[in-house]
Structures are given as C-alpha cells and as structure tokens.
Amino acid sequence: MKIRNKLRDDNFYSQIFKLVLPIIIQNLLSAAVSSADVVMLNYVGQSSISAVSLASQYASVLFMVFYGLGTGATMLCAQYYGKGDMQAIQIVEGIALRFSMLISAAFAGLALFVPEQMMRIFTNDAELITIGASYLRCMSVSYLCWGITEVYLAVLRSIERVVISTIANVLAFSLNIILNAVFIFGLFGAPKLGAMGVAIATSLSRLIELAFCFIISYRSRDIKLDLRYLFVKNKVLFHDFIRLSLPALGNDISWSVAFSMYSVIIGHLGTDAVAANSFVIVVRNFGTILCFGMASAGGILLGNIIGENRLEEAKEGAKKVMRLTVITGIIGGLIVLAAMPVVLHYASLTEQAMHYLKYMLLINTYYVLGAAVNTTLIAGVFRAGGDSRFGFICDTIDMWCYAVPLGFISAFVFRLPVMWVYFLLCTDEFVKWPWVIKHYRSGKWLNNITRDDIYEGLDS
Fold first, then answer.
1. Within 10 A of 77 (CB to CB), how many other CB atoms are there?
2. Other Cβ atoms closer than 10 A to 448
C-alpha cells in the first residue's frame, strides 16, 4: 500500500509540475510586460507612470472578468475532459464566448467614447486624466481581441494543452515588450508616443495573438476556436454554465472592482502614493507568479480527476496542492524582499514616493502568502469541485463590507497617514482565512458536475 501511494504521489506531482511550468512562464511574461511598461515609462516621467497605472485598472477588471468566465468554463471543461466528452467542451466554449465578446465590446465602447469620465473615477488630476484618456482610447482594440483569446486559451488549458496556450502568450507578450520600446521611445523611425505607445503596442500584440489562435485552431484535431458554436444551443449545458460560472464571474468582478477601489483611494492620496503603488503592483505580480500558477494547475488537474469520479483521490490531491501553495507563497514573499534593493535603486521617484515604495514592498512580503492560500482554495480547489458560490459570497462580504469601507473611512474620515491606509487595505486576505480554510476542511466543495443527458436539449 505504501509503495502504491508513493507512486500515486509521484504521478500527481509530476502531472501538476507539467501543467504549472507553462502557466508560470505565461504569468512571468505577463508580469514582464507590466514591469517593462513601468521601467520604460520611468524614463518618460512620473505622471505617465501614474496615469497608465490608473487607466490599467480597467484592464485589470476586464482581466478578472475573462478569468472568471475562463475558470467558470474550466470547471465544466476540465471535468468533461476527465469524462472524455470533447463535444460538451466545444459547446461550453461557445457559451463562454457569447458572454466574453459582449462584455469586451461594452468595455471597448466606454474606452473609445468616454475615457475622460473613466479616468475621473480614479483621479482629479487634469494631467493624469489627459494622459490616461488617450491611453484608454488606443486600448479599446485590445479589449475586443482579448475577449476571444482568453476564453479559448483557458479552454485549451483545461484539457491540458498548456504548451499551446503558452506559445500564444509568449508571442503576444514578447511582441508587446518590443513594440513598447518602439512606440514609447520612437525607435526605428516610429513616432515617440510615451504613454500612448504602451496602448498601441498592447493592441497590436493582442491582434497578432488572436490571429495566432485562429491558426492554432485550424490545425487542432480536438478543440477549435469555432465561432459557429456561439449559435449552438444546449439547455442543459447553458443552465450548468449559468449556475456554476456566473458565481465565479460575479466573484471575480466583485473582487476586482473592489480591488480597483484601492486604487481610487490611493489615487486621491496624491501622485506620490500612486507612483509608488505602480512599482509595487509590478513587484507583487512577480511574487505571485508561482502561487497563482499552482492555483491554476491544481484546479485543472483536480477537475480532471473529479470528472473521472475519483473523489477520494481528488481530496488527497487538494492537500498536496495546498502544501505546494504554502511553499510557493513563502517563496513569493522572499522574491518581493529580494527585489526591494533593486527597485529602490532604479526607481526615479520623489523622496516621498520612495518612502512609500519601501514600506509598501515590506507589507507585500507577507501579503503574497495570504493571497496565495485564498486564490488556490477559492479559484483553484473549490472551483475544480464545481463550488463557485462560496467564493462569491466570501469575497463580496470581505471586500465590500470590510476592506473597501475600511479604506475609505481611514483615508477620508480619519485622514490617517498614507502608509496606515495601505496597511489596513492589505489586511483583506487574512480576514477571510478562517472561513476559507473551514470550508476547505468540510469537503463540501467536492462535487462531480458532469451529466450524461446533456445532448437531449441540443439544437444547432
């Protein structure tokens, strides 16, 4: 028995590392693009950094929308992949694309026609509003492309085609960094556009990524980016998608909008606080690469196991994922700590902004672990078992009844110093730990959500 369990352990760990390594590469490249934006704009000016950081909050919200739709689709796709039903996966992809394309079109419309009003939510600084508005107009194209590619790549990851999705992301992110340099600094005869150059580079790279996805789809033998599935109707799968995915989507929207409120609060505390937070976001993104990759890989693998109806094995697998998450969370905090002297040496900020930056980074050395545990359980383990409702309720209460009100009260009622406001905002992850861990131990999240009667309501 011990030998067999050891073999199973070895097999589980080898499977999860095969999944997690490509995902880490994707997350690393995504963080590299964000850091490249900040590093390059550092040579343009503090106002450009601050404006792009604030305007990028809309992309952060949109990313969480796509992430919610993608993980919602992954809940179903991973389990149906374990069951061996590829047709169901293709139908779920079509359902997810309906939502993502509609939402991305709405965001693109707002960014194109009312960008000044969007910027005024975050700041009342006229210079930041002007820079951010031009950035948002150019970004509208990227939102449209993003809505399609994120869902398709999430579905590919759910069926363990992580290498393909990694190649697509490597292409997009590499192009983004190169084009950033070209358009920010005016290389090779291109116009010198500063902050607007970041948006143009992002939009062009997203267009190329979308084209690459269609090429991959054409050559794929199983799951394709087939827009005809937008019009395929399946009452059973649509009902399951609504029941399971909308709480996940609601969870991620609720959390991301609330997290954007942190930027609203910081944005009204002065440009020094905004500029410092811009650097902190980049460093924290690098610190969370390992643990967020573990959450994604763990969710996919556990979903496959549950779809095969191996529930006890899934429960043991969840314990292994949690052990790995704690380890990667600690490593993430050490990465933030190690990055501090480098960031403090090269950041070209005011003396006050540098003071904020130092202590914000220190706070994030432990904040990463809190985020790692919650993300792995809520977005990885629980969703793998078809439980998206708990996370929606937990995050909504935590963010909107605790963190956001606490931030506004501390900043604008008690007018506490900037660093006290930031510290209080960063208690959000630890406040919900007791409830999240209790739900994990209860085992109520573990469900096989696949069905055998899904084609009874199929029309095309």
1. 31
2. 17
β-bridge mates for residue 458, sequence order: 234
Domain with 257, as residue range(s), is: 2-449
Element (H, E) at 17: helix 2-42
Work out the number of other CB atoms within 10 angstroms of the CB of residue 260: 21
Residue 249 to residue 61: CA distance in whole angstroms: 11
**Is 414's pLDDT higher than 90?**
yes
459 DSSP β-pair partners? 233
Supply the pLDDT for residue 98. 92
Residue 7 lies in a domain: yes
Confirm whether 456 is domain-assigned. no
Is 457 within a domain? no
> Are the CB atoms for 357 and 276 separated by under 8 Å?
yes
- pTM of the predicted model, to two decimals? 0.75
Residue 409 makes CB contacts below 8 A (sequence gap 6+) with none
Distances (CA, A) of 213 to 165, 172, 198, 284, 296: 9, 11, 23, 29, 21
**In this predicted model, which residue has the larger pLDDT, 362 or 60?**
362
| Integer Cα distance of 395 and 263 in angstroms | 18
The pair of three-digit structure tokens given for residue 440, joined into one six-digit string:
């994990």
pLDDT the model gives residue 46: 72
Q: What are the Cα distances from residue 141, in Å, to 111, 286, 326, 418, 423? A: 9, 27, 39, 36, 36
The DSSP line for 325-360 is: HHHHHHHHHHHHHHHHHHHHHH----HHHHHHHHHH
Q: Tokens for 58?
A: 């809309």
Nearest to 303 by CA among 15, 7, 5: 15
| pLDDT tens sequence across 125-148 | 888 888 888 888 888 888 888 889
Number of domains in the chain: 1
Considering the domain boundaries, does residue 460 fall inside one?
Answer: no
Q: First-to-last CA distance in the chain?
A: 50
Residue 221's SS3 state is coil
The tokens of 26 are what?
A: 């994707």
Which residue type is seen at 206?
R
- In this structure, the dihedral spanned by the alpha carbons of residues 82, 291, 73 and 247, taken in order and rounded to 10 degrees, is 120
Question: Is pLDDT above 60 for 8?
Answer: no
DSSP state of 452: S
pLDDT tens digits, residue range 417-456?
999 999 999 999 999 999 999 999 999 999 888 887 776 6
